[in-house]
Amino acid sequence: MPKQMLIYEVVLDEIKRRIADGELRPGQRLPSNQQFSKELHVGISSVREALRVLASAGVVRIAQGSGVFVSPQPPPPDELRKRFTTTEVASLGHLMEARRIIEPELAALAAQRASLDQVKRIQDYAERMNRNFRAGRDWMEADLGFHAAIYEAANNPVLEGMLQRVNDLLVDSRRQTMRDHQVSERACRFHLLIASAIDERKPMLARVLMQEHMDDAVAVFRRLYTPPTSEEKEAAEQGERSLQTEIHVI
User: Are residues 101 and 158 in the same domain?
Assistant: First the structure.
């Protein structure tokens, strides 16, 4: 069964189509966000998100105060007509890799440093995400809130600031992996376990669980958009096995 497109992807694909078909030429200014919103019947936020992804992939250039322009040398038409360009996949893959490196340490720091209020926020987001997923409701906001609450609870302004500055692309990377029901279910379970480890002040356990969560997300992303390798398969299988075993002490 084909996967349902996310709203911002409708905008992204339409802009790429216009560039590939020559309707928008290198260096040409794009229509305003409001015009795209009206033409494609989507919200302004979806237009902005699509433009951010295209800018990160080098398809367009965002000039503050001047507008958005097609890059002087955009990808060739055949590349633009793909579901995701090679550059887009590479950019998101690099971001997923960065999350895999940073977030386990933030989870460990949160287990050590979080205030009681911060712990409660982390738990609340994990539980809300799980409830919304089980009820078939959108859970993206709770997912984002969970990770943002951990960034804050780590009480390291430098690391928190680094991740906040790339938050738009972090949103995009999460959207790519939320399509699969089993992947989403595993994410909910990981969040509950991570929240519990932070509440119990177990930094090593929080680090290991977040590492497995990130390994699983990276493996899923690569499986969706790049040929799988034995390493990715093993990471996904290990993540599933770990959730089947009750962890008492690390």
Answer: yes
pTM for the predicted model, two decimal places: 0.64
**Are the C-beta atoms of 34 and 44 separated by less than 8 Å?**
yes
SS3 173: helix
Any domain includes 234: yes
Distance CA 97, CA 74 (A): 25
Residues 130 and 146: their CA atoms lie apart, in Å, by: 11
pLDDT at 181: 81
> Is residue 96 packed enough to be buried (19+ CB in 10 Å), middle (13-18) or exposed (0-12)?
buried
| Domain carrying residue 231 | 86-244
d(CA 37, CA 46): 8
Q: What angle do CA 86, 103, 121 make, to 5 degrees?
A: 120
Q: What angle do CA 126, 127, 128 make, to 5 degrees?
A: 95
Task: For 29-44, write each residue's pLDDT tens digit.
Answer: 999 999 999 999 988 8
